[in-house]
Amino acid sequence: MKFTGFELRRVAMPLVTPFRTSFGVEHARDVLLVKAVGDQAEGWGECVASYAPLYSSEYTDGAVEVIRRYLLPALGQLSTVDATGAERTFARFKGHPMAKAAVQTAILDAELRAAGMPLSAYLGATKPAVPAGVSVGIMDSIPQLLDAVSSYLDGGYLRIKLKIEPGWDLAPVRAVRERFGDAMLLQVDANTAYTLADARHLAQLDAFDLLLMEQPLPEDDVRGHAELARHLRTPICLDESITSARAAADAIALGACAIVNIKPGRVGGYLEARRVHDVCAANGIAVWAGGMLETGLGRAANVALAALPNFTLPGDTSASDRYFARDITRPFVLEDGHLRVPTGPGIGVDPDPDALGEVTTSVDWLPL
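^ thats the sequence. predicted structure below, dont judge the formating
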């Protein structure tokens, strides 16, 4: 396909409640959307980088600069552009997977819209709907946490994930387990907040029959996770450490994880995310779909990915109203604890012009 250019659009999306993790608090999402404009169709990609380099080294302003100065000029040197070619072209630039993923997804969405093919079918999805879990941030008090978990369970979510950090781990997990019982699917996410010296402390979480413990140690301490896994009964799940299919294969070989969280933005796009899925499937490692507080555009693509066969655990593919009072696409709604996989071509959803206009803070057009 011939592309005439790309639109970089910034939108400010207030969160319905502040979302606190071990690395900070978000009150609103400063989202970068990428629209690829081709001669046959247009496509959308969402950059999941945060406003500051807290979850990873990437941040929104940096992603804009990388796309503007390096990624799009590199695409301009190609005679034709497609998602696979973009991935190869971007490989010479080190890092910046979230920026790369946003551009690649916009291109892939345009390609698939032109071909009339849903992203889910392109990736190899096998499910019409995916089970939805919810991520619950660190709260000011345990009663506040219990009220939040109760509301999510009443809303139909099938799995609860609690964010933890030193000083907010054993007591809140115990309180949630005692209040809601052993049958509830419960997991925790540390976002790299601990060290291997905390192994004995973290082992106390084994008493609560957790589905998994996500990324307790720093992202570059894969060997530490392998050592920690030998001290815990709770399965270790890696998130930040899994930056590619190769990284997944290495972590699995070292015994550092029993489960993997796949976030397309973290690994550079949906093509690499599918490879991570395939590596894990070949090694008997279960996967689930992570979330980065995406709008409906990013959520649609994540739901399509989560419909692949080895996504056997509920992901962070929550409904739109978990995060936003008004989404920029038709809202994703829980149906019996599941989200429907979009069936339209490409990512299967379009932005609502009025909703998008209300939250847009800037628009830049970059001809190719």
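The first strand starts at residue 3 and ends at 21.
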